[in-house]
Amino acid sequence: MSPSLPTPELPRLRLGYIPLTDAAPLVVALENGHFEHYGLDVSLSRQPSWATLRDKLGIGHLDGAHLLAPMALACSLGVEGVPQRLVTALSLGLGGNAITVADNLYRDMQAAADGQPVTAQALASVIARRRAAGADPLTFATVYPTSNHTYLLRYWLAAAGIDPDRDLRLIVVPPPQMVQRLKQGDIYGYCVGEPWNTLAVRDGIGCIVAAGHDVWNNAPEKVLAVGAAWAQRYPATHMALICAIVEAARWLDESPENRLRAAHLLAGETYLNLPVEVIAASLSGRLTVDQRGTQRELTDFHVFYRYAANFPWRSHALWMLRQMVRWGQLPADADLLAAAHATYRPDIYRLAAARLGVAPPAVDMKAEGGHRCAWKLGEGNAAVALGPDRFIDGAVFDPADVGAKIAH
Amino acid sequence: MLVDDDLERRALVAAALDGAGLAVVAELGTADGLLRAVAACTPDVVIIDLESPDRDILENMRCLSRDNPHPVVMFATSSDSEAIREAIEAGVSAYVVDGLSPGRVHSVVEVAVARFRQYASLQRELAEARTSLAQRKLIDRAKGILMERGRRTESEAYHALRKLAMDQNKTIADIAQGVIDTAELFK
């Protein structure tokens, strides 16, 4: 155990996760012994639904969880049933999502694109044609109302002039059920985390039309969420947990070989119970996107450690909160800044980073959308390398403007 | 409306709700058709297994409640969080349609919680069986006293006990104990 850290008050922990590739940092931390190294005896508990995960966290059946970042915020605001104060001091990574459509819809979109790349514009044409013919609106799915999947899909649609509430029907389907629902024709498309996009392509029923990265480069995704009271009661345990997971994330981004080893771990029966190649696709950044075998190289598909991926940016929190207001989940006069401050705890992350010798960003917020390439925040030795953060519509989100306009 | 893929447990809960005078309008094993079923039955309460992946679908309906004439909402406000806690711990999550009084929901959940607990813990069930045996003995003794002194038939004696229990909001065993105690005094 690391000598520089106080002994965890609660050495035995139970963490919840949903079967997704981006649960990798938790699985790696357990399987590679990072938890053990920090004096923690962790068990991972696979959960059937996000609501279940949230409720078990709320009543203390789970000590912490791999949670949708917006869900952690929504819980604290009481958007989600019983208000429960959750905090996060650790982002589990950037990216990891994609938008998939049914094969038949993809063919219609291809026809509408007329030789040009198949984008949401093509979907807009298909929708217009269907409406003219008097057909029902298409049904799309996301994994949860307060998820980045919902916000990325809505952003992608809205950027092409599609009104997600009028032109489409959006429903919720749990990730492991997506492919089956697409096959049954209940839905025409969805936005979900991997491997549930690659699986649809492999099964010959869907095509990946956009990666989450295309909508927002290096968008935040899951966080490690714990109860606010829990964090206060067990600070040394929380610290050890963060350190162990950051070490696992670092290992994940160290080499392609490590990514492949992670794919093997995740593929196991206890975790995702799927073929290794399906999980390896997005982890290696090489996705097969359609039935003709077209490949896309996306080295930033999953980012676990690079670009300060573990830092809980309050500007990320504000963007998500703004999406909640934009799509009517939160009243326009909600105190977004207070919610972002209460739930996102970069101060705790910085303490862990100091123990690990990792240089954290010196600020809690940054403007999002202004960088097409990797860039550096700060000067000299204190500079932190960050990734591109461009939005599909070229917009810039300035957290200082929150409340000024609810356009993006 | 009841959603649970475990047939046995579903039957237990359904029986419990029925016993509490609450009609189960639909029983579903999976969410296949959950949306349609909710629209068709407009249930007051949907009780769904905590471990069901379909809970997310139900929660989505709650989120969409603003546009829905029959909104599905989670009943708990922060003051009810203890009830929710109990429900979740017992493997129950309860959702209600607007306009249902919290008192009634509470009793629904309480009954369901009791049933889930009974199902979940074999030990507890065993203990309960033992208690009920002891209670039966009490009731039998009380019935005997009533039959002897009040010249009632067995059925009349039992109904008298049950009516008193309902009127006083006590269990039949409690009333039976009272009858026995009183009889002791007049010996």
Automatic annotation (TrEMBL), chain A:
UniProt keyword annotations, A-Z: Cell inner membrane, Cell membrane, Membrane, Transport
Keyword field contains Membrane: yes
This protein's GO CC annotations: endomembrane system
Gene3D superfamilies: Periplasmic binding protein-like II
Compartments (UniProt record): Endomembrane system
Source domain of life: Bacteria
PANTHER family: ALIPHATIC SULFONATES-BINDING PROTEIN-RELATED (PTHR30024), BLL4572 PROTEIN (PTHR30024:SF43)
Name of this protein: Nitrate transporter
Organism: Immundisolibacter cernigliae
